[in-house]
Amino acid sequence: MAVFRSGLLVLTAPLASLAPRLAPILTSAAQLVNRTLYVHLQPGMSLEGAAQPQSSPVQATFEVLDFITNFYNGAEVHTHLDVRILLTNIRTKNAFLPFLPSPVQNLAHPPEVVLTDFQTLDGSQYNPVKQQLERYATSCYSCSPQLSSVLLNPDYGPGELPVGSLDVPLPSTTRPSSPVARSPKQPVRGYRSGAVGGTFDRLHNAHKVLLSVACILAQEQLVVGVADKDLLKSKLLPELLQPYTERVEHLSEFLVDIKPSLTYDIIPLLDPYGPAGSDPSLEFLVVSEETCRGGMAVNRFRLENDLEELALYQIQLLKDRNHKENEEDKVSSSSFRQRMLGNLLRPPYERPELPSCLYVIGLTGISGSGKSSIAQRLKGLGAFVIDSDQLGHRAYAPGGPAYQPVVEAFGTDILHKDGTINRKVLGSRVFGNKKQLKILTDIMWPIMAKLTREELDQAVAEGKHVCVIDAAMLLEAGWQNMVHEVWTVVIPETEAVRRIVERDGLSEAAAQSRLQSQMNGQQLVDQSHVVLSTLWEPHITQRQVEKAWALLQKRIHKTPSGL
């Protein structure tokens, strides 16, 4: 069976009869398309007549909104598919412009195959019907010159509808703020201009529902606020968020694909109100169940500033069927970021100068991140661990390679009575003082690098295949040239401060000073191959480490040496 990168699914059956058939239709489509699946709604269209069918307007009703939500919800099973329901022909009851057959619409990923639920009487791949389907698809959208076509007949006999398929009401998913009860066939009102906001990290199906409803309501302009800067600080694993520009790029491509007739104003959202709180031209705001209170706060803010309230439309959250115990039960970017933990984020370094029989991991993280506990878990799985802190103790010890240079640089008042270096006193001298810290690191880092290389030789002598260098200052010291991969352990800075205070007996200010002398979590992650976190219960951390280790073993066995 041929598999295509992109496809167009033309749905011709009444929406109520499509509801129970969504799962088999999506399954059939997912077997043929492995990347982008565009969906075009044209209920009631026949492909068996002599005349070429034309695109006609579809009345936007709450049934249409519910169908779109349920379609995206059903697509959650097929994680490889980027589903995009096209909205060009869906019209609200008071559209401000007349419907005109639009010129061929360009799509970001021109379909290579067109699919349909339309059934011939005998259920066959009837050529005239397929030819009509291809002509219809190319009259509406830019398609591949070698366009193929398939009539889907999923999971039931030819020419038959599954039992109970007619007039099955779709679950209600969109609720206007008006207290008036809505009905499925009730037309949806259109507005000239409206707004929607979110983080839109790794654009997923719940985002697409929110955006699709907003695009249907808007007739001329849609303002899209994308959370940035301070609004990201409270997010889970903010270090793994896509950069603002990348989120906007994906968002823009999706919006222009689904409804190119709108003017999109995509702007950074820097406070909870954004333009929705101050723009007098806006008429509606689309929110989720989770952000509905924020929408009401926006309206209170508008009233306080003599602006009219916005019509609020609340969208139901999509349930995540595959969430784990430490993840939200809704479709969420936070869960997607959690699932990235332990995965390889970028290609490993090639290090021909390192021993060919040894694969070296540099393990780092801000102070208090829990990297030492990760190192011990990796040791339990078979890794040789080099503890840089222990090497530091060796270097600082009387007679050690760093002892005399450090005493000469910082004076004898950093010594205990027994002549050993008091590392707490030394730390208080350098943390928060860049000049003093540089004096210390200029002494220590070359010495530590030499000791680390000696330990790498010891790992080879013991027949180990994986070595982990546990070093808080791995990247600051420039030790990337000693490792194949950098693994970083992240936690929120507030949690790191709490742990440092509890573990080392320091004040919060001293803990903050220590963190400020290091790269922050974002800077570390930007140079990392694998990210882990100790934010949850120990067994969750263990599961992450085991996943990362298993994936590492697969990578190692694919290397030319095979270790």
TrEMBL record:
Keyword Ion transport in the entry? The reply is no
| Signal sequence bounds | 1-18
Origin organism of this chain? Rousettus aegyptiacus
The record's note on quaternary structure and interaction partners says: Monomer.
Q: Supply one GO molecular-function term.
A: dephospho-CoA kinase activity
Record-annotated membrane-spanning stretches: none
Q: Residue ranges of the Cytidyltransferase-like domain?
A: 196-339
Q: Which GO terms describe its biological process?
A: coenzyme A biosynthetic process
Please explain the role this protein plays, according to its UniProt record. Bifunctional enzyme that catalyzes the fourth and fifth sequential steps of CoA biosynthetic pathway. The fourth reaction is catalyzed by the phosphopantetheine adenylyltransferase, coded by the coaD domain; the fifth reaction is catalyzed by the dephospho-CoA kinase, coded by the coaE domain. May act as a point of CoA biosynthesis regulation.
Enzyme Commission identifier(s): 2.7.1.24, 2.7.7.3
Instruction: Name its cellular compartments.
Output: Cytoplasm; Mitochondrion matrix
Official protein name in the record: Bifunctional coenzyme A synthase
Q: Which NCBIfam families match?
A: dephospho-CoA kinase
- The protein's annotated pathway: Cofactor biosynthesis; coenzyme A biosynthesis; CoA from (R)-pantothenate: step 5/5; Cofactor biosynthesis; coenzyme A biosynthesis; CoA from (R)-pantothenate: step 4/5
What InterPro entries does the record tag this protein with? Cyt_trans-like, Depp_CoAkinase, P-loop_NTPase, Rossmann-like_a/b/a_fold
UniProt keyword annotations, A-Z: ATP-binding, Coenzyme A biosynthesis, Cytoplasm, Kinase, Mitochondrion, Multifunctional enzyme, Nucleotide-binding, Nucleotidyltransferase, Phosphoprotein, Signal, Transferase
